[in-house]
Write a structure and sequence with these properties.
Helices cover about 35% and strands about 20% of the residues. The chain is built from 15 helices and 20 strands. The chain binds ligand BES, manganese (II) ion and zinc ion. Ligand BES binds next to helix 12.
């Protein structure tokens, strides 16, 4: 189990009472006169985020009051994750139910995450007894997948190039007994021309990582993750602020590996495939150039309008391969466009699909899992914006408006599978919130895990 969790046999734990405007008085009444007087003396109010430590006569901790939103008010189901940082070391338990017991417990684990590769972390000795009726092993699987994705994204590019991303994929495949194949060199140049083109400017050579797991007869679910280990923009170079966070441009790959961990650890009845085009978009004499034209794996010829629109190029060849075996469900993750962030901000990944039922399911589950997504349209008329005068398509649109949509429309040219989901993610938390430390974030994986469990568990 996750180190933040304790089993019920280990200790009952110090009680945490969740209080709000409607139940605050009743909870204090149940404690007794002394506690009520103490709460009044220190001016405790049952407001979201407020904390009160109640002492016993011997000075030990009797219990904790923690303010949450009143039921019905806009609420953050991860709010209790804040307690990991504000309680003294010890083992605790939920004495009454927060808004969502499962997500509150999960937030203890995801909120305790620290990136400790380059310096020691702080002690995280606030542990939670897994609440009755909650599957602690499942929460642990999810938290591990999230931590894996965050670690990969947080790791700077000097230690997370295509080689290291491949090593991480190999380690995960080994852990779960999955097969893994990596296509590189001449075979990549011939079979995946767009992946090669984007990666050809870097001494850290491009490759396609291909993980397969599960029974061949089970429904095929294929994940494709953008693995651009650093995005300089290429010859169409980014400016300093644009480039600063581009170590996270393999966030889609990290998300696909995090989700794959959850699926394989749970042993879902799917034939899982994970495809990761791993490249570095670098600047050198061998970089691909604006107005170069490449014939993609699918045969579609692509004129390069902008070398900074590299994500859609590497995804195009990977999606084409994924599509060849006609999976029941095909999902890609990519830090694809700044435009998706302009439209929806950092917390809401954009979702694209032609499958209305799937979109509705996913939107609902995303809300229920506190891993929300928002659908944007694959607006057919904008396809014309991708036209090239000399090849089948350009990789960027003219005008630059609706950039997240035109990027998704470009990807769709390489997909025939009826159930395809594309997520344009940010993969980052700009300032910490409960359960979500500042830095790398694993978006959409928990929602998809819940969707797949509902279908295939
Ligand atoms: N990786 C970037 C998109 C990105 C930037 C995601 C910042 C999250 C934060 C992608 O490769 C890119 O550069 N996209 C360009 C596309 C444009 C050239 C059509 C963009 O969004 O500006
Ligand atoms: Mn780019
Ligand atoms: Zn990019």
């Amino acid at each position: 189990m996750h180190p933040q969790f304790a089993s019920a046999s280990e200790a009952r734990g110090i009680p945490i009472w969740f209080v709000h405007a409607d139940n605050g008085e009743a909870v204090l009444k149940a404690f007794g006169e002394r506690e009520r007087a103490f709460a009044a003396a220190v001016g405790f109010e049952p407001k979201p985020g407020k904390l009160l430590l109640l002492p016993k006569l011997d000075g030990k901790l009797a219990g904790v009051l923690f303010g949450i939103e009143r039921p019905g008010d806009t609420l953050d189901p991860f709010r209790p994750g804040q307690l990991v940082h504000s309680l003294p070391a010890g083992i605790y338990r939920f004495a009454n139910a927060p808004h969502d017991t499962r997500l509150a417990a999960l937030a203890f684990a995801t909120g305790a995450y620290q990136f400790t590769r380059y310096r020691k972390g702080e002690a995280r000795n606030v542990r939670l007894t897994v609440p009755d009726g909650i599957d602690g092993d499942d929460l642990s699987r999810v938290a591990e997948g999230v931590a894996l994705a965050r670690d990969l994204i947080n790791t700077p590019s000097n230690d997370m190039g295509p080689d290291e991303l491949e090593a991480a994929a190999r380690a995960l495949a080994k852990q779960h007994g999955a097969r893994i194949e990596v296509v590189a060199g001449d075979r990549l140049t011939k079979e995946f021309p767009l992946i090669h083109a984007v990666g050809q400017g870097s001494p850290r050579s491009p490759r396609l990582i291909d993980i397969v797991w599960g029974k061949e007869t089970d429904p095929k679910v294929t994940l494709v993750g953008k693995g651009v280990c650093f995005d300089t923009g290429g010859l169409d170079i980014k400016n300093d602020t644009g480039m600063l966070n581009m170590k996270k441009d393999m966030g889609g790959a990290a998300t696909s590996l995090g989700l794959a961990h959850m699926i394989m650890a749970r042993k879902l009845a799917v034939r899982l495939r994970v495809l990761i085009p791993a490249v570095e978009n670098s600047i050198s004499g061998t970089s691909f150039r604006p107005r170069d034209i490449y014939t993609s794996r699918k045969g579609i010829t692509v004129e390069i309008g902008n070398t900074d629109a590299e994500g859609r190029l590497v995804l195009a060849d990977a999606l084409a391969l994924a599509d060849e075996e006609k999976p029941a469900l095909m999902i890609d993750f990519a830090t694809l466009t700044g435009a998706a962030r302009v439209a929806l901000g950092p917390e809401l990944p954009a979702m694209f699909t032609d499958d209305d039922a799937l979109a509705a399911d996913m939107a609902k589950i995303g809300m229920a899992e506190n891993d929300p997504v928002w659908r944007l349209p694959l607006w057919k008329p904008y396809e014309a914006l991708l036209d090239s005068k000399v090849s089948d398509t350009n990789n960027v649109s003219t005008g630059g408006q609706g950039g997240a949509i035109t990027a998704a429309l470009f990807l769709r040219k390489f997909v025939t599978a009826p159930s395809w989901l594309h997520f344009d993610i940010f993969a980052w938390t700009i300032s910490a919130r409960p359960g979500r430390p500042e830095g790398a974030e694993c978006q959409t994986a928990r929602a998809l895990y819940a969707l797949l469990c509902a279908r295939y568990a």
